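Researcher: I'm comparing several assemblies side by side, and this is the next one on my list. It has 228 residues spread over four chains. Same procedure as the others: predict the full complex and return the structure.
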Amino acid sequence: MAQKNVSELRLKILSALSDPIRLELLEFLSGGERCVCEILPAFSRSQSTISKHLNILFEADILDRRIDGKKTLYSIKDPQVFELVRLVDRMALKQISQLAEAGRILEESLGIGR
Amino acid sequence: MAQKNVSELRLKILSALSDPIRLELLEFLSGGERCVCEILPAFSRSQSTISKHLNILFEADILDRRIDGKKTLYSIKDPQVFELVRLVDRMALKQISQLAEAGRILEESLGIGR
DNA sequence: TTCTATTATCGTCTTATGGCGATAAGTTTA
DNA sequence: TAAACTTATCGCCATAAGACGATAATAGAA
């Protein structure tokens, strides 16, 4: 409805993922479908805050949502999101190892004895 | 220095990518190393704005930077970033086709003659 | 129906982000 | 050295985003 082209959706997905709490929510839901009442105690944020974050992930089509009685159940809609996160992690790890390598070389150039 | 663990770097990378101009900058630089003076005319933003965006991508270790005379040349440091963007695009396309499919079914249920 | 449980939404506040013009800093040219 | 170029940074403003408590909405229990 609101969004149409790939660029907008792409941006919406990436924006949804650029928040630490929402990344944690994904990890939490990797264990399977959970109701909000199960999610809440795992996060040190207010109910309204968590609800909003869940909705952002839902709007980005990353999460699915269904209502069962008085509970709302959230689950991963597109598991490809984990490939994405893993790919980002690989990039991050590469950066860390490069830093470590640079440190090793610097150390060496300063002499092994310190 | 400032950042240490994977979570922080991961977030920094994703945040860097959650902006339309920065995504365009990546596409632009996919053609190879470019100086800021070449980048500027391709974007309808002020020089200070572009400079800031380039720096955000640099800080996220996505871009490389080198100075040559009075010019600063930017280039893609980690080409894996394109795999990432392509993966997001695939997710976005999936969403679009699902929407189209839903529309088709709805149309059908309303009768072909309209 | 009334009470409780669960979750979404509203209003508000604070902070972060993006945008710009002006200025600074560094480099080459004159 | 002065002038011109190129790019980064600063200060400021407007808007977006995140957080929270309060309230609304809905479903099941009493």
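Model: For your comparison table: The helical segments of chain A are 6-17, 20-29, 36-39, 47-59, 80-109.
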